[in-house]
Design goal:
Helices cover about 55% and strands about 5% of the residues. It is mainly α. It has one domain. It has a two-stranded antiparallel ribbon. It is rod-shaped and about 95 Å long.
Length: about 110
């Protein structure tokens, strides 16, 4: 009986191997969470860009309907047709490409 009590008393704390395994498992979990976060952020920026382009294309169509011509530049649309920071891609803050002869608006980053 004394042996059992002594064995239980001696095994306090964790071994170095146990602590190493716990740290490795935690590191793997952190890497998985970071990867998921980055993927969701990239997807959110892409969806925001697509939404901005839809709004700008609708504004170009309204401008064309009102004036029987396309605007010379996207800056001619604001503030009457488009407001806010919607004239730039949220990923790189680069302005959207615009062809004044056809009224086509594209994003060079996301290829929309």
């Amino acid at each position: 009986m004394f042996r059992v009590a002594r064995l239980l008393q001696d095994e306090r704390g964790f071994t170095l191997m146990e602590l190493t395994f716990v740290i490795i498992i935690l590191a793997i979990l952190v890497l998985l969470v970071i990867g998921t976060y980055e993927a969701s952020t990239t997807l959110a920026e892409k969806v925001t860009c697509e939404s901005n382009l839809r709004s700008i294309r609708a504004a170009v169509a309204m401008y064309h309907s009102s004036n029987d011509s396309y605007p010379d530049a996207l800056d001619d649309l604001s503030p009457s047709y488009v407001t806010g920071r919607g004239l730039r891609c949220p990923t790189t803050e680069a302005p959207y490409s615009y062809d004044a002869s056809t009224g086509r608006v594209t994003c060079s980053v996301h290829n929309f």
